[in-house]
Amino acid sequence: MSISRIVLYYAFTPLSDPEAVRLWQHTLCRELGLKGRIIVSPHGINGTVGGELSAVKQYVKQTRSYGPFRGMEFKWSDGGAEDFPRLSVKVRPELVAFGVPEEIEVDEQGVVGGGEHLTPQQVHELVEAKRADGAEVTFFDGRNAMEAQIGRFKDAVVPETETTRDFIAELDSGKYDHLKDQPVVTYCTGGIRCEVLSALMRRRGFEEVYQIDGGIVRYGEAYGDSGYWEGELYVFDGRMNTRFSQEAATLGECTACGGPTSSFHNCRDRGCSTLMLYCEDCRHIPETTRCADCEARLAAHPQDPNSGHLERPRRR
Ligand SMILES: [Zn+2]
Ligand SMILES: [Zn+2]
After folding, report:
1. How far is the CA of 311 from the centre of ligand 2 (A)?
2. Does the keyword tRNA processing apply (predicted)?
3. Residues bordering ligand 1, an ion, CB closer than 5 Å
């Protein structure tokens, strides 16, 4: 049996002809038998592709041969083409859909005006240095609020976001203005959302913004469950949650009984994007019942129960 792998990567760099990059990437992946999802935008590229090890190595080499992608880091992980339903290569106005492409400026160094990058070790140095000065560092969650239900940094601020587009209204609401003169560290799964979020925050008057290089994933590799991270990490694949060690705390609460759990489940409607936490005892409930959103939608449009829902991985 041949060995397979997945690579994850992103680069913020100006692309004058995203459509040409899309065509090239699509042809390259198809010829190498790779599947996955790639977004190309005037601000750069973001992708996750999988296939046979030798093909993925070829892909990395070919992709890096293009000037703007020369220094791009690729994160390797277990898996293969079978982890993706298809190959999708699309041009979008933004790499991460905050809904404000006109606010984002990139140059060869990346996003202009973003927060200072910190390694996991530098995060600890910052917290200690500020504490010595009598100040507290605030961790600011750059993900959808749902993801933070099962894991987040200690005492983190978790904005009320259903999607990344909700961040702008949250930041402009005034709710977080008390943090504008405080040290704030943003974090997300792999770091890409914070590249943009930290710049949007700085534009809005947050004076001291940092971001964790490589996100929660890199932090967890360095400190596991013995640092400032607490709980489990939500991941965008069939597993849905992963932990850094056996000591990981269980922060999530079952929607039905309130018991501890980290397991997200889809409601019974196919294609429903609503994920809710259920414990082992109550996990049959979403398989037999619609979520509140679907019940409401069905009541409003009885002939079309699945309209408007996005595709998400369904837990097996
Ligand atoms: Zn329960
Ligand atoms: Zn539903």
Report:
1. 12
2. yes
3. 254, 256-257, 259, 279, 282
**How many Å lie between the centroid of ligand 2 and the Cα of residue 298?**
10
pLDDT in tens, the chain (316 residues): 689 999 999 999 999 999 999 999 999 999 999 999 999 999 999 999 999 999 999 999 999 999 999 999 999 998 999 989 999 999 999 999 999 999 999 999 999 999 999 999 999 999 999 999 999 999 999 999 999 999 999 999 999 999 999 999 999 999 999 999 999 999 999 999 999 999 999 999 999 999 999 999 999 999 999 999 999 999 877 778 899 999 999 999 999 999 999 999 988 888 888 889 999 999 998 888 888 888 888 888 876 545 444 444 444 3
Q: Which of the ligands is closest to the CA of residue 287?
A: 2
Angle, vertex CA 242, rays to CA 238 and CA 246, nearest 5:
145
Which ligand is located closest to the Cα atom of residue 283? 1
Distance (Å) of CA 217 to CA 56, 81, 115, 182, 301: 21, 22, 18, 25, 41
Looking at the annotation, which residues are catalytic? 188
